[in-house]
Amino acid sequence: MRAYRFDHVHLRTPDPDATARFFETMFGAEVTRDVYPPGTLYPGQLRVTMRLGGQTVLLAPPHPQEPTAPAPRFPYFGLEHIGLAVDDVDAAAEELRAKGAEVAIGPLMRSPGLRLAFIRGPEGIMVELVQRR
After folding, report:
1. In the chain, N or C: fewer CB atoms in 10 Å?
2. CA angle 30, 9, 103 (to 5 degrees)
């Protein structure tokens, strides 16, 4: 079988810079900002790439030729959230709340050895904090 490797998550947002600032402030994401070159779908617009937990997350503005729908009500089918592992969910949730984040769910014990919380970000982006023991 062909080998597949994880490459990226792509988030669409009306304000990529504001969404990037949220991930920088709340989760320490490493953010690169530049401009889409001529001949691309978004020439001259801000292009944002983040490194978060060792993975690449791309942030793009609304599609120029297609209407962009708002995020559905959580929970929903499809790509629902980004999960980040932490050593202490309670401490992480409290730290994020102190920075102004909305702790939408938890912290709570999902099952023995699994504690979690959900943070609601811009455009309804959900980030799960996971503590496994």
Report:
1. N
2. 70
Cross-strand partners of 130: 85, 116
The C-alpha atoms of residue 129 and residue 117 are separated, in whole angstroms, by 5
Report pLDDT for 117.
96
Write the single-letter amino acid at 54: G
Task: Show Cβ contacts of residue 36 under 8 Å, excluding neighbours closer than 6 positions.
Answer: 42, 43, 44, 45, 46, 47
Is CATH 1.10.530.10 what the domain over 70-133 is classified as, yes or no? no
Judge whether 1-66 and 70-133 match in fold.
yes
Domain boundaries, the chain: 1-66, 70-133
Position 6 scores a pLDDT of: 83
Q: pTM of the full predicted structure? A: 0.83
The two beta strands, 46-52 and 102-111, are unpaired
Mean pLDDT throughout 6-15? Answer: 88
Q: Are 89 and 115 in contact (CB under 8 A)?
A: yes
Asked if 61 contacts 118 with a C-beta cutoff of 8 angstroms, the reply is: no
Q: Does domain 1-66 have CATH number 3.10.180.10?
A: yes
